[in-house]
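Dear colleague,

Thank you for sharing your sequence with our group. We've completed the structure prediction you requested, and as agreed, I am returning the results in plain text so they can be pasted directly into your records. Please verify that the sequence below matches your submission; if there's any discrepancy, let me know and we will rerun it promptly.
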Amino acid sequence: MKYFRIFIISPLIFSIFTVNGQLQKGNVFLGADIANLDLSLNTGSNFSAALNPKAAWFIQDNLAIGGFVFFGLSTAKGAGTSVSYGIGPLARYYINDISTSPVTHARLFFEGNVGIQGSNPAVGNSTNGLGIGVGPGIVYFMTSNIGLEALIKYQGIIGFGSSVTTSDLTASFGAQIYLPRKTIEKAAKMP
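Please find the predicted structure tokens below.
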């Protein structure tokens, strides 16, 4: 019973703290987003998923730069397999001030990326080349170091293939771990 009380009370204690230290200069965030998840349970059904790992370093308070990798896979019986990919730099800016926010554990952000991307569907036009993505998101800090996020992003690709351009609007959900600079410095000094 003692451990059950600790399990129930711990999130309440963490929820008292406001979001301040995670977005400071020198800190890092690591995590991934999942989009287009479709695990159909019917016979001969579809599978679709996209994974987008990210890592970024805060070069100043509320502004992080880093990189992303994107891989999407979609299969359908009789239609073949579709693949999408991407790699490149990203930037994220957290826009709302915590002192004026009605929700003290959430922050709005704006994310943008540029890189090499491709969309190669089993049926339809493919495009490979320069990818550009922009969109708003929100992160909710469950603890001082873990944030759950939702992001709506426009993705466009300009390049070559059977189509010169392609674009789509995606909604993704993910989790990020925010590491303070001191934690990273300690880990770097360990043998």
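Summary note from our side: Residues 3-18 have pLDDT under 50 and may be disordered.

Kind regards,
the structure core
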